[in-house]
């Protein structure tokens, strides 16, 4: 499938992932994850998702931290690990779990027989169907499963997971109407920063990776407060910034517009005025930060597709395929 077609079927993919994960979670004993420090790990886009998941666990009062696989190789880092990988074949994540034999481990992947599922022992399936490059339904499917898992560990939230696919469809439709304007403002950027705080830092990380992979534009994530301490100084009329958030992010968006930098602000706040360089995408508020992360990234996925098309890179494959990052299937 094409990248745009997989984005378009996000509502169906989310609905399928919720149905499958809800059934599987009913049969899993999660006692080992009910206390102690939980490390959420993954690599690439899966680490971005791990940051979102850790942010929600922290909001719910749990001790949790997103961990890169390289930081886990010493062992005894956390009491339990939730490992994320769409196909479950990332070498680094499998090695990280194997380096912590005493910890409780659960993997969220598409393949219950994948190396990561085997290394974890416990597994919940991502039933997202087809995906493309860069990942769209694989990323949101991972978050969908993790959202239900966190509710099992911490109790239900006010977020209506059953209705989220419908909300996603609405966000995609409204976002698509803004893409012509956003694409024109962000065309030919020499660099694009993506900014957010807490769980939204994970979304910013995922968005920057999408822009790099789909449009080959240098892009990088940054924490909101960190960004104010110097990194935004390099931005000007030749760059762009994508911001996720409802607090200090709003003023930051206006400041960046004032210095001539095109800005996309993805926020739950209502009534924020757009400007000549500021485009606002309003997202329905969600109690679960994971649900919010799913909705927030949809606009970033469409932006990546828009920039990819403008650069003549529609559905282009990676220029630098790697031979040592995935465990090959038998």
Structure description:
The chain is of the alpha/beta class and 330 residues long. It folds into two domains: 3-154, Rossmann fold (3-Layer(aba) Sandwich); 164-310, Rossmann fold, CATH 3.40.50.10490. It is 45% helix and 15% strand. The protein is built from eleven helices and ten strands. The chain has helices at residues 3-8, 10-26, 45-59, 91-98, 115-120, 137-154, 164-186, 199-215, 224-228, 248-258, 289-310, and strands at 38-41, 64-67, 80-84, 104-109, 122-125, 192-196, 219-223, 240-244, 263-267, 278-282. The protein has a five-stranded parallel sheet with strand order 2-1-3-4-5. Strands 7-6-8-9-10 form a five-stranded parallel sheet, sandwiched between helices. Helix 8 (199-215) links the parallel strand 6 and strand 7. Helix 2 packs parallel to helix 6 and helix 7 packs parallel to helix 11. The longest helix has 23 residues, at 164-186. It is globular, with a radius of gyration of 19 Å. The two termini are 25 Å apart. The mean pLDDT is 96.
What percent of residues are in strands? 5-15%
Topology as H/E string?
Answer: HHEHEEHEHEHHEHEHEHEEH
On the 0-100 scale, what is the average pLDDT?
Answer: 96
Structural class: alpha/beta
Low-confidence stretches: none
Strand order of the largest sheet: 2-1-3-4-5
Report how far apart the termini are. 25 Å
Count of discrete alpha- or pi-helical segments spanning 4 or more residues: 11
Helicity, as a percent range: 40-55%
- The CATH architecture of the largest domain would be 3-Layer(aba) Sandwich
* The CATH top-level class label of the largest domain: Alpha Beta
How many structural domains in the coordinates?
Answer: 2
Major beta-sheet overview: 5 strands, parallel
């Amino acid at each position: 499938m094409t990248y745009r077609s997989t984005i378009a079927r996000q509502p169906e993919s989310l609905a399928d992932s919720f149905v499958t994960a809800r059934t599987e979670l009913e049969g899993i004993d999660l006692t080992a994850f009910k206390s102690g420090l939980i490390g959420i790990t993954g690599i690439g886009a899966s680490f971005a998702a791990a940051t979102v998941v850790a942010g929600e666990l922290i909001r719910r009062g749990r001790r949790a931290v997103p961990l890169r696989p390289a930081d886990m190789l010493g062992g005894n880092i956390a009491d339990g690990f939730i490992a994320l990988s769409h196909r479950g074949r990332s070498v680094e994540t499998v090695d990280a779990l194997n380096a912590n034999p005493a910890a409780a481990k659960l993997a969220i992947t598409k393949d219950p027989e994948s190396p990561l599922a085997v290394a974890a022992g416990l597994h919940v399936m991502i039933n997202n169907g087809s995906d493309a490059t860069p990942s769209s339904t694989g990323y949101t499917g991972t978050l969908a499963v993790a959202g239900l898992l966190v509710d099992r560990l911490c109790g239900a939230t006010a977020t209506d997971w059953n209705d989220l696919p419908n909300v996603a469809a609405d966000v995609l439709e409204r976002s698509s109407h803004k893409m012509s304007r956003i694409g024109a403002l962000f065309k030919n950027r020499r660099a694009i920063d993506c900014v957010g705080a807490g769980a939204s830092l994970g979304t910013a990380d995922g968005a920057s990776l999408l822009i790099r992979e789909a449009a080959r534009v240098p892009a990088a994530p940054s924490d909101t407060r960190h960004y104010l301490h110097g990194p935004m100084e390099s931005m000007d009329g030749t760059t762009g910034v994508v911001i996720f958030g409802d607090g200090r992010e709003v003023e930051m968006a206006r400041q960046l517009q004032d210095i001539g930098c095109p800005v996309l602000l993805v926020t739950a706040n209502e009534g924020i005025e757009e400007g000549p360089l500021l485009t606002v995408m309003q997202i329905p508020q969600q109690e679960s930060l994971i649900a919010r992360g799913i909705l927030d990234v949809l606009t970033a996925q469409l932006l990546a597709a828009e920039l990819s098309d403008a650069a003549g890179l529609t559905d282009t494959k990676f220029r630098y395929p790697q031979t040592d990052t995935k465990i090959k299937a038998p």
